[in-house]
Write a structure and sequence with these properties.
Elements (H helix, E strand, L loop, with lengths): L1 H10 L4 H9 L9 H14 L4 E11 L4 E3 L2 E4 L4 E4 L6 E5 L9 E7 L16 E6 L3 E6 L5 E6 L8 E8 L3 E6 L6 H5 L6 E9 L4 E9 H4 L3 E7 L2 E6 L3 E6 H8 L9 E4 L2 E4 L19 E6 L5 E4 L4 E4 L9 E6 L5 E8 L9 E4 L7 E4 L3 E10 L2 E14 L10 E3 L5 E3 L13 E8 L4 E10 L2 E10 L5 E6 L9 E7 L2 E8 L3 E11 L7
Antiparallel strand pairs: 1-36, 2-3, 3-4, 4-5, 6-7, 7-8, 8-9, 10-11, 11-12, 12-13, 14-15, 15-16, 16-19, 17-18, 20-21, 21-22, 22-23, 24-25, 25-26, 26-27, 28-29, 30-31, 31-32, 32-33, 34-35, 35-36
InterPro entries: DCAF17 (IPR031620)
Protein name: DCA17 factor
GO cellular component, one term: Cul4-RING E3 ubiquitin ligase complex
Length: 523
């Protein structure tokens, strides 16, 4: 704070907004983030130069899933870790093969928060939170795979925890159970199952237990199909497309019966044990006895519901199958449809188009179709400050210049032939967008476009200016791309990583590194 005031006095700036703007442009050399921002700016310029290439430096294949997290490639159910930051990917650690009972169901990367005092030296290094099939929550060192902490989750209440997610990224974590279902024999005997899900809530670094609660039919209704927690909101989804939002923090505060700490001895409902230790696990200490106050509800096809933008808006699809691919953008304040708020690309394709709020926090919206990407923005309607409209910021169009799709052709003899069918918008023989992502550190929008002719598919990764959509760089991927397979592409500063899942659980990983070379070669 003192250095900030000194900077203000030194340059005669008395407005906080101006100071922040000048800091963002690197006016103050002693600012901790200036060097980092300058380095990322230089990396972006180097990467987009014509002479800069991306070379396939490493390829591997596996019979088990391959995962990528912040410069680390995980294989063999997280028993093998490989760094992708080195010039050539190299092994960080390899653990012995684990038993089926120790299989990892889900994982989250945990990174050290800035400016906080933590109890253990190991807390300042990156670690991996993993959930095993036997309901153990483990914190592993990202550098060695060593177990740093372990918590047993399932006591008498629940036996099947399966999913990890963030409520607040790198701060509050949610562990969710699989949906509780009674065996067929129990259902035939007339036994009722009222508890659908269990949610365990943890603060991370240091790892501490906040509480466990159940999602019960008696409170939330019989047709609940799924639940999620995000940014302090409990999201409950129903079979008829209904989505309801509740204040999760208020639920924790209102219905907490008794707080518990990990390692604490407890006597709970006749059980004596230690919190987080086998065989007692965690107590279900948050009992929702009445329906919490409803914040918001909406009906949407397949429970598709998103919130974002400024001022707050939400995106839904009207809850009828005929409206699939039609998106309504409405104000969260009063549910009014924004002007031009119905977005419909009218695609004729096997795979539907998709839409979401831009992850760069600009409040914009990205709408992706087979051959068109629209970046939309919210702005005030002229002379109507209370009403917002959707305007086009920029578009990115697939390269289909050589595509000819005439419904009528004339033979050499002059006979007119009419086709009985037309090509789909996402026909494999036409360039089609498959992946759109955002690289926040370089402020680049990345797209993967694919063209498949016969059995051979070709893909290229393009980098676009996030502000204006201008194409800055195109990288051809060397490997063949089959559109029927599942694909993930990660763009992480100077690294491109492609993970492919083939039939019969065969996985491949292709790593590309940035190479600066003015010489013209095949690399």
């Amino acid at each position: 704070a003192g250095s900030g005031r000194a900077a203000l006095r030194a340059c005669g700036v008395h407005n906080v907004c101006r100071l922040l703007s000048r800091r963002a442009h690197g006016f103050y050399a002693r600012d901790a983030g200036v060097a980092h921002r300058k380095n990322l700016g230089l990396l972006r310029k180097i990467m987009c130069q014509e002479s800069t290439k991306f070379k396939n430096v490493w390829t591997t294949h596996s019979a088990s899933p391959i995962a990528y997290e912040r410069g680390r490639i995980y294989m063999d159910n997280y028993q093998c870790c490989i760094t992708s930051i080195a010039q050539q990917p190299r092994l960080i650690y390899q653990k012995s093969k684990c038993a089926k009972s120790e299989k990892i169901e889900d994982a989250l990367l945990l990174e050290c928060p800035l400016g906080e005092m933590l109890p253990r030296p190991s807390d300042y290094k990156a670690s991996l939170i993993v959930l095993t099939v036997q309901n153990w929550l483990l914190r592993l060192s990202a550098d060695s795979g060593e177990v740093l902490e372990k918590v047993y989750l399932a006591g008498s209440c629940c036996k099947f925890f399966r999913y990890l997610s963030w409520d607040t990224p790198q701060e509050v974590m949610i562990v969710k159970s699989a949906q509780n279902k009674l065996p067929a024999a129990a259902r035939q005997a007339g036994i009722q199952q009222t508890v659908l899900f269990y949610l365990a809530v943890f603060q991370v670094l240091p790892l501490s237990f906040i509480g466990m609660l159940e999602i019960n039919k008696k409170i939330f209704g019989n047709s609940v199909t799924d639940v999620a927690v995000s940014n302090g909101i409990l999201i409950v989804m129903y079979s008829m497309g209904l989505v309801r939002l509740y204040n999760f923090k208020a639920i924790l505060e209102q219905f907490m019966e008794q707080p518990f700490d990990l390692g604490q001895e407890f006597n709970w409902n006749g059980q004596v044990g230690i919190v987080g230790k086998y065989p007692f696990g965690l107590p279900c200490n948050i009992k929702i006895t009445d329906t919490p106050p409803l914040l918001f509800e909406a009906s949407s096809l397949e429970n598709a519901f998103q919130i974002g933008g400024y001022p707050w808006h939400y995106i839904i699809t009207p809850n009828k199958k005929k409206h699939k691919g039609v998106f309504h953008i409405c104000s969260l304040k009063d549910n009014t449809l924004a002007k031009n708020g119905i977005q419909d690309m009218k695609c004729c394709s096997l795979e539907p188009d998709w839409i979401y709020f831009h992850p760069d926090m600009s409040g914009r919206i990205i709408h992706v179709g087979p051959n068109l990407i629209k970046v939309l923005k919210l702005k005030e309607v002229k002379n109507h400050e209370d009403q917002m409209e959707i305007a086009e910021d920029f578009t990115i169009v697939a390269n289909r210049e050589n595509c000819v799709n005439n419904s009528v052709t004339v033979t050499a003899s002059g006979r007119v032939v009419k086709k009985r069918f037309t090509l789909l918008d996402d026909d494999p023989e036409q360039e089609t967008f498959k992946i759109v992502d955002y690289e926040d550190e370089l402020d680049l929008l990345s797209t993967v476009a694919v063209t498949q002719i016969g059995a051979d598919g070709r893909a290229h990764l393009d980098f676009h200016c996030n502000e204006h959509g201008i194409l800055l760089k195109s990288i051809p991927l060397k490997e063949s791309w089959d559109v029927t397979y599942s694909h993930e592409v990660y763009f992480d500063k100077d690294l491109v990583l492609h993970i492919e899942q083939k039939p019969n659980r065969r996985f491949s990983c292709y790593v590309y590194q940035m190479v600066c070379d003015t010489a013209k070669d095949d690399d």
